[in-house]
């Protein structure tokens, strides 16, 4: 590749890295300002007598507020809970007849004998009757019958009755269906943010879920229109279900009422992306610890987990469930201390309790997209040049060998050899010109595509994801072959270690720059909220090693075909099988432990070490960097000058492992960019420190064998 063209690609890459740094800085400024965290106590606790019994202005509410509680997570009430509080009476057909015999019905006539079998919901409050009708009608449709005043208990006032057929009754009794509007208004007046929970039974089919969301949304709309409520996000805490689509009644109500969505971590739903987009990404990441899990974790570990969710994953709403039944930690004084500890821990970490607000919706400008895609294409071209072209022989020497300097080559080589060399040189020049033409075309296309009208056949989102995936393959390998491979070829001596350290630091900087390019390319709000996320994680973990393997084979100069043939004809020994088994096992562990969801469970020792590092350093460096990849690179680098077979290859593989892990750190886009940078700095610093210790130890034993 011509020097001028190579410099142009390097300049374009440097501009793209600078744009990535600027984008990361802007993102950091937004994340730094968004420090409010809602601590939401579960409304099921507030109904208990020791928590105030749901009474307005109960002194316990003020105590919780002073402890740091800022919100109430409102669970809809079931019919059984309404009956327990005396707001409704649930009667079956047989019970009606018994009450008639006892003279407890307002109209002791014969009409009760002919009533259909099922559940009768009786209330003397007109507003409760309307809530029941609003909640049950969307869910059961015409199966809900209205009996008006014909069935009611004795006493003053007008009676209201709803009927549910017998086969629906068992499910409806325990279904959270009625939002406590009066209590929500009261809690809001006390200064709490209201966070409704839409959480249906898991046995509901998707279509019934939609009706359930509609029933709750209609009630919520009526409550909002009836009073001034400090509304937080509406959270969907079920582990797995379909979220409502924007076209449904629920989506329309969410949009019209300007509601926000509480995205509970580790839940899944098919309609989530559409609903979040329809709300202009008014989304707050939310964390919930289930009751059973909370009982096992205890207070200390629960606080650590909540803090980690806030610090590392951008969570801004914490839903505090009760401890399990009969657990003394759910008593008021103990729970208040738990909230106080959590709030104090958050404040010590630099966060503010209350005032959690969604991130402002943002989209990466097309001009920046153009720079990012162009920079990635330039990096890919530079890497390809390492694969296709060997290092240049100095011009004067090449001319001398080719017989063009005026000095006769007949003294050392015959004319036929010179012709072959000239022909190969011409072919090499044609190959280089073709490569240059293709490279310029690809880079210009990468610069232009984001600026063009895509039309119906091109997907901008897919193009950006594909470019980010390409960056994850290119930059770790480019850093390794551009900086580390030449460093390992340095002359042994005092300057060798200096070259290795310099190459390691420059490689880490280039990989970080590439990661910032990819993170900037996927910097839309949807990615920062993890509604969209970087795909192809497994490819990004394995692909760079395949590319490096090809590079190492090409460096041998015998061609891929000859190397493959040589490998197939290799005599297999027991040691080869053992090494293959160890390498295969390590590769399997590496693959299954990586990605967004690890298949292989993490050991308790590793979890304990992670927690210790998180407390000590805040931004925990990754083990694959500071304990494995970086130190082993330095260890193998110390053995390279001795000519130990395979030392250089192992050094490059270990170095690439660290660089791949470094790049993937920034692909957790919902993680604050400041933590990714700080964790990377810790990883590079600690990894180099441990590596230098191993390097010096290996160098000592190499020069002073036992």
Structure description:
The protein has 706 residues and is an alpha/beta fold. Among the domains are: 3-26 and 363-703, no CATH class; 77-102 and 109-178, no CATH class. The protein has helices at 3-33, 43-46, 59-67, 79-84, 93-101, 126-140, 169-173, 181-189, 206-226, 249-256, 272-278, 291-313, 332-348, 366-388, 395-402, 415-448, 460-488, 494-521, 525-528, 537-555, 559-568, 574-592, 604-617, 623-639, 647-665, 673-703, and strands at residues 36-42, 71-74, 89-92, 118-123, 145-146, 160-165, 193-196, 234-235, 261-264, 283-288, 317-320, 352-353. Strands 1, 2, 7, 8, 9, 10, 11 and 12 form an eight-stranded parallel sheet that branches. The two termini are 49 Å apart. Residues 153-157 and 392-412 have low confidence and may be disordered.
Question: Strand portion, in percent?
Answer: 5-15%
**Helical percentage:** 55-70%
Based on CA inertia axes, which overall geometry fits?
elongated
Taking pLDDT < 50 over at least 5 consecutive residues as the criterion, the unreliable ranges are 153-157, 392-412
Computed CA radius of gyration, to the nearest angstrom? 34 Å
| Average residue-wise pLDDT | 82
Structural class of the secondary structure composition?
A: alpha/beta
What profile does the largest beta sheet have?
8 strands, parallel
Count up the helices: 26
N/C terminus separation: 49 Å
How many β-strand stretches? 12
Can you give me a brief rundown of this structure?
The protein has 706 residues and is an alpha/beta fold. Helix 9 (206-226) packs parallel to helix 10, helix 14 (366-388) packs antiparallel against helix 18 (494-521) and helix 17 (460-488) packs antiparallel against helix 25 (647-665).
């Amino acid at each position: 590749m011509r020097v001028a063209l190579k410099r142009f690609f390097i300049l374009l890459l440097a501009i793209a890295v600078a744009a990535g740094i600027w984008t990361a800085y802007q993102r950091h400024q937004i994340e730094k300002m968004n420090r409010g965290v809602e601590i939401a106590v579960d409304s099921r606790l507030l109904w208990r007598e020791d928590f105030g019994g749901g009474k307005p202005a109960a002194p316990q509410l003020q105590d919780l507020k002073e402890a740091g509680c800022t919100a109430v997570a409102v669970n809809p009430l079931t019919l059984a809970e309404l009956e327990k509080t005396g707001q409704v009476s649930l009667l079956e057909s047989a019970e009606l007849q018994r009450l008639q015999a006892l003279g407890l019905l307002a109209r002791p006539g014969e009409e009760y004998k002919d009533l259909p079998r099922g559940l009768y919901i009786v209330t003397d409050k007109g507003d409760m009757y309307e809530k029941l009708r609003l909640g049950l009608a969307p869910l059961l449709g015409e199966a809900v019958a209205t009996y008006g005043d014909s069935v009611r208990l004795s006493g003053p006032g007008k009676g209201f009755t709803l009927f549910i057929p017998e086969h629906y009754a068992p499910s409806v009794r325990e279904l959270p269906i009625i939002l406590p509007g009066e209590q929500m208004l009261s809690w809001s007046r006390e200064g709490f943010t209201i966070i409704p929970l839409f959480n249906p039974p898991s046995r509901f089919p998707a279509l019934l879920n939609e009706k359930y969301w509609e029933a709750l949304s209609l009630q919520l709309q009526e409550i909002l229109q009836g009073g001034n409520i400090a509304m937080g996000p509406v959270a969907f805490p079920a582990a797995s279900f379909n979220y409502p689509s924007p076209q449904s009644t629920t989506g329309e109500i969410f949009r019209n009422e300007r509601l926000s969505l509480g995205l509970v971590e580790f839940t899944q739903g098919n309609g989530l992306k559409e609903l979040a987009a329809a709300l202009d990404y008014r989304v707050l990441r939310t964390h919930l610890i289930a009751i059973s899990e909370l009982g096992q974790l205890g207070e200390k570990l629960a606080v650590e987990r909540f803090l980690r969710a806030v610090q590392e994953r951008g969570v801004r709403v914490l839903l505090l469930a009760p401890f399990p039944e009969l657990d003394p930690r759910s008593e008021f004084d103990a729970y208040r201390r738990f909230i106080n500890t959590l709030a104090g821990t958050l404040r010590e970490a630099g966060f503010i309790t209350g005032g959690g607000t969604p991130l402002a919706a943002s989209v990466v400008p097309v001009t920046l997209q153009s720079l990012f895609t162009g920079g990635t294409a330039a990096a890919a071209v530079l890497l390809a040049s390492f694969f296709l072209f060997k290092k240049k022989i100095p011009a004067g020497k090449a001319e001398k060998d080719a017989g063009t300097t005026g000095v006769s080559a007949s003294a050392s080589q015959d004319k036929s050899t010179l012709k072959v060399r000239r022909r190969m040189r011409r072919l090499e020049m044609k190959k280089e010109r073709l490569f240059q033409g293709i490279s310029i075309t690809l880079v210009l296309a990468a610069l232009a595509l984001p600026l063009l009208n895509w039309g119906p056949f091109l997907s901008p989102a897919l193009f950006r994801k594909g470019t980010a995936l390409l960056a994850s393959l290119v930059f770790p390998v480019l850093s390794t072959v551009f900086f580390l491979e030449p460093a390992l070829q340095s002359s042994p001596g005092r300057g060798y270690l200096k070259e290795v350290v310099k190459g390691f630091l420059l490689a880490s900087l280039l990989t970080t720059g590439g990661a910032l390019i990819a993170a900037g390319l996927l910097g839309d709000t949807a990615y920062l909220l993890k509604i969209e996320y970087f795909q192809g994680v497994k490819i990004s973990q394995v692909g760079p090693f395949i590319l490096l393997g090809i590079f190492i084979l090409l460096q041998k100069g015998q061609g891929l075909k000859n190397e493959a043939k040589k490998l197939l004809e290799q005599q297999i020994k027991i040691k080869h099988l053992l090494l293959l088994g160890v390498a295969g096992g390590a590769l399997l562990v590496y693959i299954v432990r990586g990605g967004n969801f690890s298949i292989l469970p993490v050991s308790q020792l590793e979890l304990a070490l992670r927690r210790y590092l998180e407390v000590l350093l805040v931004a925990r460096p990754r083990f694959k960097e500071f304990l494995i990849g970086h130190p082993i690179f330095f260890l193998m680098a110390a053995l390279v000058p001795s000519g130990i077979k395979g030392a250089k290859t192992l050094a490059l593989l270990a170095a690439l492992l660290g660089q791949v892990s470094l790049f993937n750190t920034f692909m957790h886009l919902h993680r604050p960019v400041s933590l990714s940078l700080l964790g990377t700095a810790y990883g590079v610093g600690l990894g180099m420190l441990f590596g230098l210790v191993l390097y010096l130890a290996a160098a000592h034993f190499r020069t002073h064998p036992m």
